[in-house]
Amino acid sequence: MFRVRPLLSALVNHRQTLKTNGGLYKPFCTMSEGGMDKQTATLLKRTNEENEDSAEKVQAAKRVKTDGEHAEDEKKYPKKKVVLLMAYSGKGYYGMQRNPGNSQFRTIEDDLVAALIKSGCIPENHGDEMKKMSFQRCARTDKGVSAAGQVVSLKVRLIDDIIEKINEHLPPQIKVLGLKRVTQGFNSKNNCDARTYSYMLPTLAFSPKDYDTGNIAAFRLEPETLQKVNRLFALYKGTHNFHNFTSQKAPSDPSARRYITEMSCGEPFIRRNYEFAVITVRGQSFMLHQIRKMIGLVIAVVKGYAKEEVMERSWGHEKVDVPKAPGLGLILERVHFDRYNKRFGGDGLHEKLEWDREEEEIKAFKEAHIYPTIIETECEEGSMVSWMATLPIHDFEATSIEVQDDKVKKQVSKKIHLF
Questions:
Q1: Helices (H) and strands (E) in the chain, counts
Q2: Where are the beta strands (DSSP E) in 314-406?
Q3: At 366, is the secondary structure helix, strand, or coil?
Q4: How far apart are CA 299 and CA 387, in angstroms?
Q5: Where does 43-162 show beta strands of DSSP type E?
Q6: pLDDT tens-digit series, residues 3-46
Q7: Is 180 helix (H, G, I), strand (E, B) or coil?
Q8: 210 is catalytic
Q9: Hey, how many other C-beta atoms are within 10 angstroms of the C-beta on 208?
Q10: How far apart are alpha carbons 98 and 266 in whole angstroms?
């Protein structure tokens, strides 16, 4: 308790002393006429120091109590390495990965970490330093990209009803669907063997380039066109140099070589009178924008803006102009841990990282939060139609040599004009 009453008592006694001795009492508001006397100043200084000491003792007591509570929590709920299966709609978020210091750019991990702290799964100081909880995401989804099977690994306190308590603090468009114990050295990114993505798009994307895009609802994909689409997607299978399908990657960079095991487009279906289809692609790993550019190039070929040979040329050392399809329809469907499952899935201590029991809940989340968002946004904003209008701008015939020649010609032309 702060020492306010003793201070008032001392001041009253001091004023009485002044009156008894025949002195004139001057209120403190007239400090400019002479200020307070030394005895009063000493009393104020001593009381302030005592108040500061009291405040520090209170804060120290609180810290001791908090530390004690944390120690008690650690004893009751020791931290264990787990994986969380997550699903989320990416609309309105700047991707999955957290960006410390950029609070205006909200990410999926921002909301997840906040929920982990509020639910008591991790200490508050782990929110600022995610390394303390050994946090790792399996895939870093971009702005606007959704996920039905994202997996993150981290150390948490295994509190009672942990999944329910985490979800209590998450918005409806983010949900934790499952949790499993893993080995101490498990890393969801490094232990992942493959990733499967899907891409939902209006089939209008495969229409001829002279088709009237103002009549979207009337378009229906012909079986012959779907066959051609799948034949082109099949060309991606195997290992290729995808340096043209990302940014700032040299053709000589070994990391540009990626292995694709599956890529195809499914049968069309109708939603809100529009025809949609889903493309599925599975690969060992993907670079930034790689999938969107793979789809964008096939669309350009099918529509007649580019020749089919450009696909083969794009894997060479030449620089090829590859269009990037919108991010709206891209979904991380699932991640695969085949090697981990083979080694630890049958050891009697750990489960296989497979989510068959959660399959119905995954499907329900997609139907409730992911598909409606993609369809409604596409119907209202027309992101695919807007993107298709940019395809004529791309020069699919140009190579890096030709581009370099053009730059040289322009520089020579400028020099000539100077003389």
A1: 12, 10
A2: 330-336
A3: helix
A4: 11
A5: 79-88, 136-137, 146-157
A6: 445 544 554 454 555 444 444 444 444 444 444 456 655 656 66
A7: strand
A8: no
A9: 9
A10: 33
CATH of domain 80-181: 3.30.70.580
Quote the crossing angle between the two packed helices 290-303 and 223-234, to the nearest 10°.
Answer: 130
Residue numbers belonging to the annotated binding site for substrate: 197
CA distance 156 to 80: 6
Give Cβ neighbours of residue 133 (< 8 Å, ≥ 6 apart).
79, 122, 126, 154, 155, 156
Q: Which fold has domain 194-337+357-403?
A: Alpha-Beta Plaits (3.30.70)
Q: Give domain limits for the chain.
A: 80-181, 194-337+357-403
Whole-model pTM: value is 0.78
> Tokens 């944390």 correspond to what residue?
70
Q: pLDDT grade, residue 399 (50/70/90)?
A: low
Question: In angstroms, rounded to a whole number, what is the distance separating the alpha carbons of residues 289 and 256?
Answer: 13
Looking at 37, 142, 193, 210, which residue is catalytic?
Answer: 142
Residues placed in the known binding site: 197
Q: How far, in Å, CA of 101 to CA of 105, rounded? A: 9
- Residues 324 and 233: beta-carbon distance below 8 Å: no
How many CB atoms within 10 Å of residue 278? 18
User: How far is C-alpha 213 from the chain's CA centre?
Assistant: 33
Instruction: Calculate the dihedral angle through the C-alpha atoms of 313, 314, 317, 318, rounding to the nearest 10 degrees.
Output: 80
The tokens describing 263, both together, are 């890529």
| Torsion, CA 89, CA 94, CA 97, CA 100, rounded to 10 | -140
Q: Does residue 157 contact residue 77 with C-beta atoms inside 8 Å?
A: yes
